[in-house]
Structure formats: C-alpha cells, structure tokens
Sequence to fold (223 residues):
Amino acid sequence: MREILLAVFAFMLTWVALAAIGMVVLRWRLGRANRVSPAVKSPAPLLWLWTPMRAARLHRRLRTAVALIHLSPSPRTRQAPSLSVDELRRELEYQAVELDQHLVIAVRHPRSHRRGLLASLDVQVGEVERLALRLSNMSRPTGTPSSGWAGPVTPPEVLERMSEQLDLLDAAQLELTEIERASGLVDVDELLAVTQAPVAVMPPPPPTPLPFETRRTGRVPRP
Fold:
C-alpha cells in the first residue's frame, strides 16, 4: 500500500512540475512578445497584448513600429549611409522604449491627468511610426517595393494600364497587316473569306423534247 501511495505521489508531483515549467515558459514567451525592443524588458503588463485600452493600443503600435525597423534590411552598398541609417534606427528604437515607459507611468496617474498625458503620447507614437516607415523605405534598395509587389496602385489604375497595352497591341497588329498588304503579300483575311464562301450550285440541264409521234401515240418508236 505504501509503494502505491509513493507512486501516485511521484506521478502527481511530476505533472505539477511539468505544469509549473509550462507556465514559466509561457510567461517568458509572452513577456518577450510584449517587449517594444527585443533587447529591453518592457514594464507594460501582459494584458496590454490584447486589451483594448488606449495605453495598450499605443504600446502595440510602438511594438509594430520597432518590428518594422528590424524587418527592413540595412543597405550594404555604401559604408557611410549604412552607418548613419543604423544609428538612426537604434536611436528611434531607444525613443520607442522611452515612450513605452512613459505609457506605463501615465496610466498610474488619476483619470483627469491621464487623458492629457495619453493624448500627448499618442502624437509622439504617431511620429515614431512615421519615422520608422521612412527608415524602412530608406533601408531598402532603390526600386524595391516594401511588400514585394510592383507598387501601391489601385485596381482601376491597373485595369486602365492593361487596356492601354491592349490598344497598343491592336494598333501594332493593324499596322503589320497594312504593311503586308502594301508589300503584295497574301491577305489572310481575303483568303479565308474565299475559302469560307458557299459554292454556287449549277442548275440541271433542260429535258430533251420528245418526237411528235411519241407525243401523239405515247409510244417510243423503235430504232
């Protein structure tokens, strides 16, 4: 009986330990995902990962802006511009981390002061997003779109461009046909029209008139 109890206790202790390790790993992963900068631990609560609070939305916007900076490749063609862009990226990331800490401090103020602080921080977060987008565009090689497509064009513009290309193709085909006709080459259209025209049917010949005796007696004369 004692051995059975020890086995049950060891089994339960193992599952409790695994559950505790799983919770620690999950909390660590959520904490990493909640960081504005991957290198700096954020003081923002984990609820800011999904809560619709205004401060939480600003926090997530900062995370997205910094992620955009890290996703954009650094230019490698020239040494001096690369260094200046990398310095700007690090400085902007540092400012985003500072704003995130100010957000955490702002939500601790009374509601009467909190609204004004968040409004001011909202403007600064928008500026960080704008600068992050400019740095991302500057970091890409010239002519390379950010999304991999040819550019942010609207469907009507695409359809209009396709229509213009088809008009040019039609004009080129018509011009080629006119050149062939002027050079005395075979006109394919006329040749097809002749082969496709219906063949005229010849009328049958008129019947040969019978001799007078045959018509009078109704008998065919013997030869």
About this structure: Helices lie at 2-33, 54-71, 79-106, 111-139, 155-182, 188-196, 212-217. The first helix runs from residue 2 to 33. Residues 1-33 form one domain.
